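sanity check this record:

:::
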Amino acid sequence: LAQGCVLRHRGRPIMADIAKGLKEKLPPAAVAGLVSDLKMVAAYDSASAWQEKKAMDLAFNGLSWHDANVAESLPKYLQESGSSRARVDYAFNVLVPRPADAKDSRQQMMHMWLKARLAFYDSKFPFQFNPYAR
């Protein structure tokens, strides 16, 4: 998203709600891991638009592939259906609104990894997206 651009739902900023909920419930390292992965996804997307192979490699390798919690939650996310999968997909689509290029398998892997990270967070502290549930 462009700097200063805020997604809103019924007048409330969506990204701010997600970030606030994560900060309140998750340890600081978890939020830093999410932000770091989001930066790498954005860097890869930008580098691929400019056909910068080295920058694409750096962004791909910069993702948190070593995080055991995310690796463990990936198969669980893929088997999940229903409301928890819908919450994770909704959060992902708010954070990364552009879909992965169907021809770019590395970008698809990065998106799936980020979804698994969100699924891990959702399994510990289920996301709340209802503005009336406060």
Remarks:
- The longest strand covers residues 8-9.
- The chain has a mean pLDDT of 84.
